[in-house]
Amino acid sequence: MDKWENNKAWFLVMPVCAFVAFSAIIPLMTVVNYSVQDIIGPGAHVFVGTDWFNKVLHDYRLHDALWRQFLFSGLVLLIEMPLGILIALAMPKRGWGVPFSLVTLALPLLIPWNTIGTIWFIFTRPDIGLFGSAINSLGVAFDHTRRPLDAWATLVLMEAWHWTPLVALLAYAGLRAIPEVYYQAAKIDGASPWATFYYIQLPKMRGVLTIALLLRFMDSFLIYAEPFVLTGGGPGNATTFLSIYVVKLALGQFDLGPAAAISLIYFLIVLLLSFIFYQVLQRVGKGEKA
Fold first, then answer.
1. CA of 207: how far to CAs of 92, 174, 232, in Å?
2. Which domains does the chain have, with CATH numbers?
3. pTM score, two decimals?
């Protein structure tokens, strides 16, 4: 009887789960439907089976966009994860500095994604932007609208500024959850700050860092609004990530079939890589505990 009463809470959660499932399944089924048909016009379509998948898998533009997406996500993770941990370690543990640091770090997370792109577009413009004009005044030719390397540097810097606070906040939460007795034992043993971090803090943060890594990988791999507003996928196709390529294909060229096929491949890649990341991190954590 007690078990049945404890399970009654599921009745409160089930409507939300049903709504989320419904809102996710309907668009997914629509994309699946488009991926196996050739949309000729309103109400006119022809079943083509897996033809679109065979076509897009041999599309060099898709390969280039996918490579850029992987490169961008890798650069972002290499910067944000260590930097977020360093910021969390430097944050105060008590006093008025704690709420001040938390609120300050949270500010970039409150700004909408398209606004982030607009802010950095203006900020880095070589003619009127504070950052862009300052760099050019030093004799360094900087223009993210014409130079691919400058566009990439601006995108990575923008993404790191926007999302490193999330990693820092999660890492700080993990640090604050460590009991004080661990630090006291390390102090008695004469452990160095590096030894304390490697043997106490890092293992205890593994759970929150796993969440941070998965969230940041998925979000950076699915990024669209910020690079679209900042560079539009340019100069040329230098910053045309997979998300931008799919939108251009679907809305710009109205090739709904190939765009739907790429969307499904995109979805499966994110799902598979997230699962692999999670399993690897979990196994590493269990191996260290053993």
1. 22, 8, 36
2. 59-289 (1.10.3720.10)
3. 0.85
